[in-house]
Amino acid sequence: MLDNVDYKILDLLKENSRLSYAEIGRMIGLSRVAVRSRVEGMVRQGVIEKFTVLVNGDFLGKRLSVFMEVEVESPLIQEAGRHLASRPEVAVVYEMTGSSALHVHVFAPSVLALQNFIEKEVYTLRGLRSVRTHILTRRYKSDLSTRV
User: pTM to 2 decimals?
Assistant: First the structure.
């Protein structure tokens, strides 16, 4: 069970995961050791799943950010999801409610690369029913962590 101090630590880490335990401790009035203990506890409990860095795809030559809804026959949705998740171009794969749909977030360097990905990796999926593709034109918010 999380308390208010844990929520404060999580908020600080979500804004800057590079903060040291000592810096967090100074900000919320705890010792470095107490912060470390709480963070390690949240990792053990599965509250914190991963520490990571968010990279701007433009600097890696991946200028297209593409969201796809891929509808697959129900019995084959897990197979399709695992296949798409194995591809390096794919950042996110979620199974959605409703029709047997997968939400897929793809990063591609060009329209040609996106076309190749769709033709070779999506259109060849067994049980494919439909594909809807949306290219991101502007980002207003991108926060994949759960707000606490």
Answer: 0.72
